[in-house]
Amino acid sequence: MAMPGILQQIAKSSPMMQKVKQMMGIVNGSQNPQALLNQMMINNPQLKQVMDYVQQSGGDPKTAFYSMADKMGVNPQDILDMLK
Hints:
Number of helices: 6
Order of helices and strands: HHHHHH
Helix content: over 70%
Radius of gyration: 14 Å
Oligomer: single chain
Strand content: under 5%
Shape: globular
Number of strands: 0
Distance between the termini: 15 Å
């Protein structure tokens, strides 16, 4: 399923989406991603909330993501496509 044009425009221009992509790159490039995430949680309470939600979802980030997307009425694949 192709991403709607408006979502493509948001993905390309959204400063938030750019920050998410940048954070993904930093974590993925880290020698110790868990330690980096722990440090980031200390500095960013919102990230801690996300990680707490993941833990409440059985510790599975994919399950947490899909569950939150469902609760918000958002197609999770649209979000994933924006992060490519």
